[in-house]
Amino acid sequence: MDSSPRPNLFLIGAMKAGTTTLHAMLERHPDVFMCSPKEPTHFVDGDEIRSVSRRAWEAGFWNAPDRYLRLFETAGAARYRGDASTAYAKLPRIGGVAGRIADFSPGSRIIYLLRDPIERTISHYLHAVRWNGEWRPPELAVRAEPHYLEVSHYAMQLRPYLDAFGPERVFVLTLEALRDDPHGQLARLVEWLALPAIEREEGPTQKNKTSATIVRRRGPRIVHRVRQSSRLSPLRRFVPSPVKRGAAALFDVPIGRGDRAFRSLEDQIRAQCLDETAELSDLLDRGFSEWTTLAGGVTVEG
Fold it and tell me: Which pick of 35, 180, 262, 277 has the fewest CB atoms within 10 Å?
């Protein structure tokens, strides 16, 4: 393994909770270097990451320690060198990450950005529709695929890091707080990192935000693989327009956050999310009143 400086700051997730925005905010500080690509996903098992993100698996940082360290070779004198891989908080699908990071860089600091668990789960589903070929309606998909809700089980994801690093090295904040008070939350984070305050800037624009309305591909997955095939794409220009429109009408379903299907999904998963949020509150000794969907749109006290 080469002598490049090691990362010592890890933004572990949660997926679809604003990590891209926070990554951009952190890298504005002169004493913080955030690597690019944002999510090298080094501290994972290859078979596990392949089952969650083929893109991360193909990037290959999980199997190339020297190449991973070279991501930080231009960090210069930055006190913190950061990795913002959301796969680091995807138990039980991806395990052992906290221990691997602790063995590799025991003095590291961990940041965990949370979001209303119902909203995060829905955004996760919409992300999968857009990028991973998820074709099932929301209720069916979440019932059939536990991973959507597992990533929102924040106490489960957080415990290994608290055990490996201690609570003094783990900073937890919510997307809602960051969105409502970006300057104040960033100031809290910078102070926790024991860094000089930075000049106040314009509030950040939320990055990597899933579109309000996207298209869900209805029908057998093989149909959509054929439609998306790069080998077949040159032939599409020979397909008459009426046939293309007919295929779109048959297989493409616009879906948005305001659809009735998501209100039904909220009702389906609310009890579980409430229980898991209570578990998180006990773990951190704090409430999450900003997560209003847990009470059907009524503010949750705590």
Answer: 180
